């Protein structure tokens, strides 16, 4: 997990980390195996300006945390394994959003919104992967 401040408002994203491995067949074809999903949650913290002429919000800093959810042991063509991924993602989203709220209590979004967005974005990536597997 890492965090970094930036001055833009990025959308919540979840990314798939793709690792290439060598096939074991005679042709040794290269294939992509999805090993983990990255769940990302930002927290927006306003910067307050106080000077002689004005008081107010000048800008905001976005802090992000991510969590890597290992799915190498799962077969996403099985419903039970998709449910397992969903549980892992929900747990990871909850943890990173709690950590962000603890580190930056004055920020937004609310904890429940943070968890829901982070989990929804990651599950969108899982659902796209499941559709891709079904079409093979």
Order of helices and strands: EEEEHH
> Can you count the helices?
2
Strand order of the largest sheet: 1-4-3-2
Shape: elongated
* Number of strand elements: 4
Quote the average pLDDT: 78
Helix content: 25-40%
Query: What percentage of the residues does DSSP assign to strands (E)?
Result: 35-45%
Amino- and carboxy-terminal Cα gap: 33 Å
Biggest sheet layout: 4 strands, antiparallel
- Spans of at least 5 consecutive residues whose pLDDT stays below 50 are 1-31
Quick tags:
136 residues; alpha+beta; 4-stranded antiparallel sheet; 4 strands
Overall description:
The chain is an alpha+beta fold. It is built from two helices and four strands. Strand 3 and strand 4 form a beta hairpin. It is elongated and about 65 Å long.
Break the fold down into its secondary structure elements and pairings.
Layout: E1 5-6, E2 14-22, E3 30-50, E4 55-70, H1 79-103, H2 111-134
Antiparallel strand pairs: 1-4, 2-3, 3-4
Briefly, what is this?
The protein has 136 residues and is of the alpha+beta class. The protein contains two helices and four strands.
């Amino acid at each position: 997990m890492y965090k970094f401040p930036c001055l833009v408002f990025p959308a919540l994203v979840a990314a798939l980390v793709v690792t290439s491995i060598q096939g074991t067949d005679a042709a040794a074809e290269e294939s992509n195996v999805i090993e983990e999903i990255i769940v990302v949650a930002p927290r927006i913290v306003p910067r307050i300006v106080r000077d002689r002429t004005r008081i107010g919000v000048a800008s905001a800093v976005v802090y992000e945390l991510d969590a890597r959810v290992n799915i190498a042991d799962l077969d996403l063509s099985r419903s039970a394994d998709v449910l397992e991924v969903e549980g892992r993602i929900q747990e990871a989203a909850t943890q990173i959003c709690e950590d962000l709220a603890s580190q930056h209590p004055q920020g937004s979004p609310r904890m429940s919104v943070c968890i829901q967005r982070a989990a929804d974005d990651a599950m969108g990536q899982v659902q796209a992967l499941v559709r891709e597997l079904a079409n093979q």
